[in-house]
Design a protein that fits this description.
Blueprint: E1 11-15, E2 19-23, E3 33-38, E4 42-51, E5 55-60, H1 64-79, E6 100-105, E7 110-118, E8 122-126, E9 136-139, E10 142-150, E11 153-158, H2 164-170
Antiparallel strand pairs: 1-2, 2-5, 3-4, 4-5, 6-7, 6-9, 7-8, 8-11, 9-10, 10-11
Length: about 170
């Protein structure tokens, strides 16, 4: 959306937590305020700092926390194809009635954690450590791999789909 509130289709060519190069038929002016809603990332806003024939570069207005979150989201997007991750979540997530849990790494180290939500295919977990993407972990008796980092912790994808009754018992 441009400063005049007109809306235009666009494609993000490259992006960092600080700026984005966007392809569009719209031709905004340098200094113009832009708001964009991007798949997987949500709302970004900023000002145009450079224009080209079919592209423009915008500098993003964001807090440090938003930049950290954006960095984690961009990292996940860049790695999801290499890890064979699905495009979207396929299963309903539920919050457990007792969120206190423990994660175990393959080397045996154990860390207390809090389950934010889970489904038959994965879980979001609040934890102080950040195992690398692809690291195998065990949550309770559910084995999986780390697929995303976020401000409060990690998301894991289970190696096998969990029975729905197991997930229901936890919620």
């Amino acid at each position: 959306m441009r400063a005049d509130h007109s809306e235009h289709d666009c494609i993000v060519d490259t992006m960092s937590p600080f700026d984005a190069v966007i392809s569009s038929n719209a031709r905004p002016e340098v200094g113009e305020r832009i708001v964009a809603y991007l798949d997987y990332l949500g709302r970004i806003e900023g000002a145009v700092v450079e224009t080209g024939i079919r592209t423009f570069t915008m500098s993003l207005n964001a807090t440090d926390r938003k930049r950290d979150k954006l960095s984690a989201q961009l990292t996940w997007l860049a790695n999801k194809h290499e890890l064979g991750l699905p495009e979207d979540r396929n299963h309903e997530r539920v919050a457990p009635s007792n969120p206190a849990a423990e994660i175990q790494l393959d080397d045996g180290r154990r860390y207390p954690c809090r389950i934010i939500d889970l489904s038959v295919s994965g879980a979001a977990v609040e934890i102080d450590v950040r195992p690398a993407f692809g690291t195998m972990v065990i949550l309770g008796n559910m084995r999986g791999r780390v697929v995303r980092h976020f401000q409060e912790g990690i998301a894991m994808e289970f190696t096998t789909t969990q029975p729905e009754e197991v997930i229901r018992q936890l919620s």
